[in-house]
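Appendix C: a fully annotated inverse folding record. The material below is reproduced so that readers can follow the format used throughout the book. The structure is listed first as tokens, followed by the designed sequence.
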């Protein structure tokens, strides 16, 4: 099946989010399509995240984000554009999840 190389976020994508995004800077490993690469989590919510430095992935791909503590978060790529993407977690994070300690005040 053919995958579109770019699935851009729609103009009102941010307004459709159900959780508030927080600015962060978290280094992580992106696992997708049998490959692993470094990425940066730029924004984070209980429902998903924004990544920077994500290459070779497409909208609707199933991925995992590996955190420094070894924990992996399963997600689906919502959109991708020139190395940045938005992801939706398969299981929402709890508001008191330790990852939120990285939220910039």
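Designed amino acids, in order:
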């Amino acid at each position: 099946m053919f995958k579109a190389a770019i699935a851009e976020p729609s103009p009102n994508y941010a307004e459709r989010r159900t959780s508030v995004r927080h600015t962060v800077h978290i280094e992580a490993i992106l696992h997708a399509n049998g490959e692993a690469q470094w990425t940066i989590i730029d924004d984070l919510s209980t429902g998903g995240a924004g990544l920077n430095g994500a290459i070779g992935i497409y909208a609707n791909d199933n991925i995992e984000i590996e955190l420094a503590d070894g924990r992996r978060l399963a997600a689906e790529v919502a959109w991708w554009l020139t190395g940045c993407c938005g992801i939706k977690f398969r299981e929402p994070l709890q508001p008191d999840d330790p990852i939120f300690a990285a939220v910039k005040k």
